[in-house]
Amino acid sequence: MSDPKAKILSAVKSDLAEIEIELKRNLGAHLEIVNDTASHILFAGGKRLRPLLTVLCARMCGYRGDYDYTLSTVFEYLHAATLLHDDLVDGAPLRRNRPAAHAVWGNSIAVLAGDFLLARALSIGVKTGNLKIMEILAQITEEMSQGEIHQLIRKGDRDLCEVEYLEVIRRKTAVLIQGACRVGGLLARTTAAQDEALGRYGHHLGVAFQMADDLLDYTADADLLGKAVGADLKEGKMTLPLIHALQKAGPSDREGIEEMIGQSEICAEDFRSLTCILKDCGGLEYTRNRAECHVQKAKNALDIFPSSPAKATLEDIADYALSRKV
Amino acid sequence: MSDPKAKILSAVKSDLAEIEIELKRNLGAHLEIVNDTASHILFAGGKRLRPLLTVLCARMCGYRGDYDYTLSTVFEYLHAATLLHDDLVDGAPLRRNRPAAHAVWGNSIAVLAGDFLLARALSIGVKTGNLKIMEILAQITEEMSQGEIHQLIRKGDRDLCEVEYLEVIRRKTAVLIQGACRVGGLLARTTAAQDEALGRYGHHLGVAFQMADDLLDYTADADLLGKAVGADLKEGKMTLPLIHALQKAGPSDREGIEEMIGQSEICAEDFRSLTCILKDCGGLEYTRNRAECHVQKAKNALDIFPSSPAKATLEDIADYALSRKV
What we know:
- By secondary structure, chain A is mainly α.
- Chain A contains 17 helices and two strands.
- Chain A has a two-stranded antiparallel ribbon with strand order 1-2.
- In chain A, helix 4 (49-60) crosses helix 9, helix 8 (131-153) runs antiparallel to helix 9 (162-187) and helix 13 (240-248) runs antiparallel to helix 14 (251-260).
- The two termini of chain A are 20 Å apart.
């Protein structure tokens, strides 16, 4: 099988089915509207990347218990909670080709349902009886909220540099993916060295995923993506393709780019010419190269683990981070 | 000293000073705007009831360590986090005579700063190394989010009964106050019986506080309250004074009440005549009686603890729940 996505999906088919069951089973809201809102975001065709990482890391580290699927849902719930709040913060009308939750139920329910999902995640985490895991969950929520705020207050800031961009994506994306990996390992009682290796794998994978996301916002097919391309640009989100292009562009290209940042309406022709500038200035290629470098570092981090099917799939997932189309 | 508030304040003066220091010291946000937003809600003259309960319960149970003040901030952070989200949900323009955070910084920052405060609370809780405490914190956040949603979806519902009202205020108010008390005790390694007693004290105190709040919304001085009286009525929040009055009112009074529920503009005269109806139908007196009953139950729950200054102050706080003017 040469299609990396098909290869991964075939390797984790039964895991994905188990995760799906647990996601439904653990929701446990008392109110129908909470279940509806949470389900709207949870069961809209997400990749289940984060729970899958927990399950695979636990397995690679030799876990033989039966709490891995349950615990893995924590990371999908946390992810869904931040999506609920972020879509509201960004004013995003669509998520995976469907109206965003705040557009269906209003801001209030979206905020409170996000709070509920976060709380559910903690409740499931507590049941491990493992304080290290609770420490990671607390740290994740703290970093993520600050990463989102950091991104928000820097929107439209043409001077945002690559270092600050990296700090934002570490907080808003990488710490959660990193946590999903480490918690899987901790369930299997990893050594400090293994925990550190899983942390490195998760960090670099998370950074690569976010860079690929930021690339896709300029290069993807809108139908596949499930939302309009160019959304980051319209919102004034300064991502690496833009940051690098601004740095390399001559005065006239720079002016052309800057004019479009944060414009609520950008016609297709203007957007096409912008992506040409980003390409000419090396913004797309540079981002791809940086992401590739993080994919490689993620895979290298797994070197200390002996070969196993779970390890092979984790390596495939790292490759997939960059090859994916959505 | 006959003024119960002055008596309590004199007994806890140095505790309040320590709590204030810890609230500033533990905030630890990386971004200035997060500190500003959190501080706006945290340092606006709150009563510090929840941290005080943690400190007093720990002391009454014989705690001799030095983590009580730090841990007590968890409950003020959680409280502030829900206020940030709730003011947004309610569209409340004012909080303690100042513009609400969402009105100053916008909905996005209010949502994310609330998320940050919740996360900070968890991080501080984890440092106790006590899983029971983390279990309580997870449960609190889960119940509170559902209580808020429950209240939200029942807004304006004339058929909301007392049982459902009690369930809403248990979730949205009492579980946090109960948690603040129990966690204080757990820090001092309470027995199961003591933990249960503190849980009962906190539950009944929380219910009494919320009933008193709901009364004040009809009877308080707006300047003292720091927000407009009648806010609950305008928002369509069905609280006990209203619920009981609707149940007891004759057809014409009932119609008069129902007409005003959820009206965004209510003139002073109409509001005065409504409070007269609530009074005539016994809504105010009934609520006061129910609150008194919960105050008594709260105090009774402390019977198993030997006399001490901390216990006496906890009893005074229960009395104060109902005697307060704001």
